[in-house]
Structures are given as C-alpha cells and as structure tokens.
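Weekly sync notes, structure subgroup
Attendees: PM, AL, DS (notes)

Item 1: joint prediction request from the bench team. They want all two components modeled as one assembly rather than separately. Inputs as received:
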Amino acid sequence: MDMNEIKEIFFQECEEQLAELESGLLRLNDGDRDPETVNAVFRAVHSIKGGAGAFGLDDLVSFAHVFETTLDCVRSNKLEPNQDVLKVMLKSADVLADLTNVARDGGSVDQARSAQLIRELEALAKGEAPPAAAPVAAAPKAVAAPVAPAPVSNDEGFVPVAFSFDDFGDEDEAVADLPSYEIVFKPKSELYTKGNEATLLLRDLSRLGEMSIHCNMDGLPSLDQMDPEAAYFSWKVSIKTDKGEDAIRSVFEFAEWDCDLEVTAHETGEASEAVADDLPMQPVPFDLSALDDEPDAPLGVVEEEEQIAAVQEAVAAAEAASNVVQMAASASRAPAADKGAAAAAAQNNAQQASSAAAPTIRVDLDRVDRLINLVGELVINQAMLSQSVIENDSNGVSSINMGLEELQQLTREIQDSVMAIRAQPVKPVFQRMARTVREIADITGKSVRLVTEGENTEVDKTVIDKLAEPLTHMIRNAVDHGLEMPEKRIAAGKNAEGTVKLTAKHRSGRIVIELSDDGAGINREKVRQKAIDNDLIAADANLSDEEIDNLIFHAGFSTADKVSDLSGRGVGMDVVKRSIQALGGRINISSKPGHGSVFTMSLPLTLAVLDGMVVTVAGQTLVVPLTAIVETLQPDAAAIHSFGATQRLISIRNSFCPLVDVGRILNFRATQANPVEGVALLVESEGGGQRALMVDAIQGQRQVVIKSLEANYTHVPGIAAATILGDGRVALILDVDAVVAASRGQSLQHETSLAAAG
Amino acid sequence: MAAKKAARKSLSLAPVLDLNEANALHGKLMALRGNPLAIDASAVERVGALCVQVLMAGAKSWEEDNQSFTFAKVSDAFTKTTQLIGVNIDHLMAKEI
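Output from the run, pasted for the record:
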C-alpha cells in the first residue's frame, strides 16, 4: 500500500468525520446538550487534524486546530453553544470540508472566509461574542499562531503534536525552579500496531524539558515466549518543565487511548529526587538531534501513520471489497473516471498522482465475509456437480438436477451479497444538502430548517453518486423559489422559519426520495402564463393542475421574477428530470398553493438485477418487475365489467380495479384483448392505487440482468429497460408505473412529446 | 568453556527497526539461540521500542543460556534511542574483543 492509498483512505475517513461533525453540530443546534454529542464533534475535528498533520496538510491542521480549541471550550462548559455560536461552528464545518476537498482535489479556498472564521472562532474561545468583523490586525496572528510551531520543514510528519505553546512562559527561567512532573507511561500493544512509536513519544516528551527516565522491563518474557509486537516495556519519567501538564498530555495526544498514562505534578524538584531514589533513573541530557535527522526513507511511513494506522483494518476490508466490487463496479467507473479527469486538469503533477487512486468504497466486514462464504459454497457445489456428471451413468439425472438447483440458489445469494456490498446509505448525500440549504438560506436571507428522515436507507453506490446533483438543484429551487421571505410567511400565518424536508424510504423495491417544502407552492397561473410566453403550450390549451405543475420540467423554464445567482436561469428542473430518468427513475410533483410543494423521486435500488415475471403479450416477451406485482389471477368472464367507452374493470373480492390492457397501451395490437383468455397481474403503482395489468400468459419467474435501453438505444415510453433471456433473446422490462399512468388517459405518446421537449 | 567455544555468530541489524521489523528480528534471534552472539547495530538509523524489547528479551534469554550476547558495534542513533527510552545497554557493549 503506498502513500497515496493511505491518503485516499484518510480522505474517506475525513468524509465520515465531517458527516459526524455536521450531524453532531446539528443535534446541538436542536438543543441537544448531551456531553457525548459534544465529544463526538470534538473527536471528529480532532481526528481530521491528526490525519491532516500526518500528511503535512498545514492549512487543514491550522484551521482544525482553532476549531478544536473553540470546541474544547464548549466541551469544558466554558462556552454555551447557543445559536450564534453554532452558526459559526456550522460555517466552520463547511470550511473544514472545503479545505479537505482542496487538499484532495487541488484548487483553492476562500482565504478571506476561513480567516474570518478563524477570528470568530478565536473570539468565541476567548469568551467574546462573535464579532461581525474583527480587527484586521488580529488576522495574521490568528493564522500564524497555530502554524508557526509546526516543524513544517521537518518531514517527519509529526506535525499534529506541534501545539501552539506561545502562551507558555519564558524558557530562560532557571531549571531548578521549574515544576516537575512524574509520568507513568504504559503503552498497550495497540499503540504499536497502530503505528505509533513509544520512542517518538518519549523523544517529544524530552523536548519539553529536563527529563529522567526509567524503563520498567519486569514484564518482559523470555525470547521464545514473547510476542514481538506486544508491548512489554513501561516507563516512569520525571521531567522538569515550565510548559505545564497540558503540554505533557498533548505529547500523548494521539496515543492516549492506547496507553495508560498518569501525569502527576510536583511543586518543586524535591519530589522527583525522591522518586529517583527508589528507582534508578537515567537522565536524558542528550542532544537528540541525531534522532531528528532521520532519513525520510519510505519506511518512515510508520511514523506518519498516526491516524492512518488506526484504519488499517478498514483498509484490509476495503481492499478486499474493492477487489470484489471491481466486477460490479464497472458501471460506476466511467463517471468516476470522468470526475477524476476533470479534477486532474486543475491539478499539478503531484496532486494528479494522488487523485489517480481508484475509487473505493468502505464495506462492512460482515458483508464481505458472507460473500466469501458463499463463494466457498459455490466451489463445493461446483465439485459436487462435476462429480455427478462423471457418475452420471450410475446415478441418473436427479443428482445433477439437485446440484443445479443448489447452484441456482447460490448464484442468487452471491448476487444479493454483491449488491449489498455496493449498497450504501444515502446519509452522506443528505448531509451535503444541509450545507446547501444553509448557504442558500444565507444568500437569500431566508430562515430555513432542513429536516431529514431515513438517512440510513441504502441504495446502490452508483445511484448515490448520481443523486447529489439533481438533489442540490431541487433543494436550491425549494429554498429560493419555494419558500417565501420571513415577513411574507408571518403575514401568511406561518412560522417565519421555513421547513424543507428530505426523506428517503424503500417502497416496493425502489427507493423513494421526497423533497417537500412548506412554502407558497407553485403559482399555476404564473407557470401557465410563462409557458404560453415561451411557446411551450398554446394560449388556449386546457391543462389540468397536474399538467401545469409538470411544465416546470421543461427546458428554459423559470418562474422566478429575477434571475438570481442561485437559480432561475432556466436550467434546473429539466436537467433534474433528465438525470433522474437516466437513473431509471421518475420524478413527480404535487403542489398545494399556500402549503408548499412535494417532489417525489423514485429510483431503482440497484442498476443491475431485478426479479421479474416473464410474460407474453401479443407474441412479445415482457418482464414485469416482481416487486410491483401483488398477485396474479385468471379473470372470470363474470368479473369483467365495462366502464365508459373503452375502460374495463375487474371485480376482485368485491372491489373494482381498472383493467389495463398492456398490449393495447404499448401498441402491440390494435384491438382489445379478451381478458378471459389472458392472465391479470394485480400491481401496486407508485401512486398507491392497484391496477390489473392484462397479459396473455405467464412464462415464469426469473432474475434478470438489466441492460439499459437509454444507453444502448433510446428511451422507450412504457419500457424501463431490456434484458437478455436464457435463450439469448432480448426481452423488454415493463415500466409498470408509466403503463398505469398511460391507462389513466395520458397516453404514452404525450409523455414522449413532453420528454422530447424537455 | 566448551560452550563458549561454539561458533560465535553475528547478526547485523537492519537500518530501520520498526514495527514491521520486530517479527523478523525475533525470528532471526530465535534461529541463533544457543550460540554466542555479537550484534552489529552500526547500520541502525532508527529503532523502535518493539525491537528494543525483542533485543532485551534476547539478552535475557542468552543470559539464561549462559551465552554471550553483545553489541559489537552500535550506531549513534541506536545508542541515543536506547538512552532516550531509559534502556541501559552498557553492560552488553562488547568489551573483551
């Protein structure tokens, strides 16, 4: 594993830490005063700082340091985390995220913004109210202070320990008068396995002042009984320093969880002499410079592995996973590579090298284990099958069939496991949205609260990656166009603070993401007028409310009076719709004037495989997603009732359900089929209602691999995708909801023209 | 004295004695047990606590076996690190040769 890989893992960790940070801050913002929450926030910043230090990312370290200092004040109850404080902190979290991204992808950050935030954070740490604009003179000091003591020229990567000691007293004081401390340092084995090194900790400790040390080797077993990687030594150190206990503890900052550490202070030097009496202490008066000039050999990585080492287990898992995932990941590779290329353009060579690391995902070890088990089973099954084939003569066909059945089951389980590996919670995407909301709220001067639900809903990684962009567009729209200004809201009798709600849930094998706001809703009159102005519809067109609402998905459509920085340039909803469609999803809007709008996106959970029922319609083979089907039944002539001119209903257990002739809607045949000769599939559509889809015959259930029609041909209304059957023929996968919608009168053709226009 | 006449082995330490090296060093020492040993630490540039542990455990075991365990040559970095972490190797320094 080279440095770039480790760095890549660090950035992945950072993303998790940032998410943790943000959710913690948001909980605090909601009035959560649990010390554990504050600790979690603190730890997140602390870990980022540690890792960043190991990689020499000085900007990140210095900002994180200031942030951490302020958080420490909150942690020690010196600072009340009120709304103003949290506002600064949330902004700081954003800047921290920016700095992390810059460190990864290159580019630049808004220096003025981070400098301003550093000032605000420092002011908070000192117990002042956040200044609107702190004196500029404070800025250079603020930025310089944390950086200065970091031995940047020294490539050892031990930067995080370089705390700002500026506050501490003058070093010229007579050593004899210095307070002395007794330190008992007992490393645990984990300290070493995480790549920390006791010698380096002791070296840093020795820099604080005059130090005597005793190494306790009592625990050391004989050579043949020892574990070379376990910790046996422990140390008793007495040190005279004016830097205080905090400085001593900060030396062990990154190791404190992996060692037993006791620091006791003695008023004068006497006590330490008493200690020296009963234990032979070795003074450490050396010029340790020889140790400082260690060559920066590749093996020096161990030193730099402060934080990174902590995730080495995860690395192993990630590596194993990425190997497995490579098979399934080819689909996601292409966009990722695009992104990489775009980023690389903006980078210098060194950074290019770091971005070249292949995209990875972090996977639960359990899931990998399960997969490995299954593959083992597969191998056994394969052996059994070939055995059966060889023994065919004596044993007959039945054992082969049994083996085949087992193989089938295994294949399916393996497939499920692989899919589970790619499944990731939507949480990171949702959390990014929180930031978008904050920023837009700031710019527009609106007060907005983002409520998220179902962040842990899991969906394929590819879907997650492609979800962020349309969601951002929609959130922008919701805040900028949807919500009213606070005065207007109060006038309308609503809470001045607008609410944007983002929820994710699983429904019938798809993920449904809902974005709702409690704003003004869509101004249909305005939308209609605008559409007429833009020649999207005829002036006398008679449109239902729903149709008007859907006009906003047309290209070049914006109802905002002014074009703002954020939205209103007419690119937006059409792009959103197209990206959702490209994912095999659908987007719907429902709006209540005065009460807000709800956008509902429904996306497939995975882009690779689905369970389908293979049916025949007018001589064509179609696949109906199994998740949509509630039940199948053979219609009775008596159960069929005519309704209106062309509609028919089927009576199922004393309730009526519209009968949808699939062959007719897809234009497979010109006349209506006779329901009695076919089979009805009772399906649940996303709208919630049930429909009976009429097909000619059911061939069977099968798992099919989805092949995108959009990518290989073009979008076909009513058809979600295609697949290849066992006999090599192509079968189309029915888009149940589109067909159901078509049966409600909007013909598929109409949908096509809308799509073509969009 | 018969035992002392067993072939004197020598072991040159790697320049970097870190976590990764601890196991290897342990293995090397185990293989050399029962023979007087002179360790050449002159190439050592960096040494971690784990390897010092292994070496000290070695010294202990050699002592139990009544064999000599000495550091024939040591580098500056090796000496300083052992002094820094309070491990006294003076008695193991080569004297008779």
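Discussion: Residues 124 and 167 of chain A are 17 Å apart (CA to CA).
Action: AL to compare against the crosslinking data before next sync.
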